[in-house]
């Protein structure tokens, strides 16, 4: 409702408008709320709504797909892809690993072709380093603050008190900015309780999360969606996470070696899972470059971002002018990149010539 879906929630929190750049324009899309306890998803075992982890989330998602295909058998055997963003840097490769491993054993016929993950959270330590380095590179924190962090932080398992103090200074000096897009307007709440955007950014409303929350907590909406009525819907859940690897690089490397099409992309204005951190993880894959870093263009002859391909078909791309939620900030560029991923070719390297 905020990014790639067919509808957006209007400011009244009750009505919808069409998203002209929805991914549904080029693909059939299943939206899966995961893990149990998030959104409308739940487990009949109440403890599972509060206790989860990477392993169970992958198994649950696989079981969902298995049962969905049994209910809609006409989709069996079709090519399909898994996409996500942020912590889906864990969710998506892990679900893909379950499918590929079972396929190698002859235990599933799911025709998974590739994964497409935006602003992925891939490595605990690389992400921490990348966040502060990104802020420094974009002039948000000073040379002195970044120098202090660099001097006292190893960005490893054990950090001293001086590292924590150095990072704390960075946090208090960033000001009231949106870490998901450091150049975007923020949602302001007035004294009378009303909310509004701090400024104008075409096609984007920083307050949309409030509209979506109101919409999904409307009893009529819950009934129409066949969800449990009287559900206290929320975008996230207070789930106690029990297992997660420090780095997803070995998992992605295994998927590349098993022939899966893998594209990672980054909105270049995000500081939550910044392009800086993703580049460190891509470097750790130690893959051979086959198509060097170059701009890619939209049908409007704009530079949509930059991309590089590696041996095995692995692709890393940026989306220019986008934050963490790429389809929210750059819906048209997001759709161009997604369509190119489905086709298995990079977007055009030169702008289109208008007659």
TrEMBL record:
Top-rank taxon: Eukaryota
Record Pfam families: Peptidase_S10 (PF00450)
One function term, GO molecular function aspect: serine-type carboxypeptidase activity
Gene3D superfamilies: 3.40.50.11320, 6.10.250.940, alpha/beta hydrolase (3.40.50.1820)
Example GO BP: proteolysis
PANTHER family linked: CARBOXYPEPTIDASE, SERINE PROTEASE FAMILY S10 SERINE CARBOXYPEPTIDASE
Family: Belongs to the peptidase S10 family.
Protein name from the UniProt record: carboxypeptidase D
Organism: Triticum turgidum subsp. durum
């Amino acid at each position: 409702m905020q990014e790639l879906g067919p509808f957006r929630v209007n400011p009244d929190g009750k009505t919808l408008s069409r998203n002209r750049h929805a991914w549904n324009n080029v693909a059939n899309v299943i939206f899966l709320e995961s893990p149990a306890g998030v959104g409308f998803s739940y487990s009949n075992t109440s403890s599972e709504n509060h206790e989860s982890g990477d392993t169970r989330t992958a198994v649950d998602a696989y079981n969902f797909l298995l049962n969905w295909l049994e209910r809609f058998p006409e989709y069996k055997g079709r090519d399909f892809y898994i996409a996500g963003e942020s912590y889906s840097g864990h969710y998506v490769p892990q679900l893909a690993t379950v499918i590929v491993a079972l396929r190698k054993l002859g235990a599933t016929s799911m025709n998974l072709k590739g994964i497409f993950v935006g602003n992925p959270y891939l490595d605990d330590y690389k992400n921490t380093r990348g966040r502060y380095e990104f802020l420094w590179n974009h002039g948000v924190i000073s040379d002195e603050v970044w120098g202090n962090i660099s001097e006292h932080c190893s960005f490893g398992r054990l950090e001293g008190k001086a590292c924590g103090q150095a990072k704390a200074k960075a946090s208090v000096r960033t000001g009231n900015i949106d870490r998901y897009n450091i150049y975007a307007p923020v949602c302001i709440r007035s004294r009378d309780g009303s909310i509004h955007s701090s400024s104008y950014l075409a096609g984007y409303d920083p307050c949309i999360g409030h509209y979506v929350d109101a919409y999904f907590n409307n009893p009529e909406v819950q009934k129409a969606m066949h969800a449990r009525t009287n559900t206290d819907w929320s975008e996230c859940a207070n789930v106690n996470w029990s297992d997660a690897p420090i780095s997803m690089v070995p998992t992605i490397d295994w998927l590349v070696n098993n022939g899966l099409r893998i594209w990672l992309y980054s909105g270049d204005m995000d500081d939550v899972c910044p392009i800086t951190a993703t580049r460190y993880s891509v470097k750790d894959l130690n893959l051979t470059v086959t198509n060097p870093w170059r701009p890619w263009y939209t049908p409007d002859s704009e530079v949509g971002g930059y991309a590089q391909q590696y041996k095995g078909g692995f692709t890393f791309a940026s989306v220019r002018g986008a934050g963490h939620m790429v389809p929210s900030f750059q819906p048209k560029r997001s759709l161009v990149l997604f369509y190119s991923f489905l086709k298995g070719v990079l977007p055009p390297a030169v702008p289109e010539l208008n007659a």
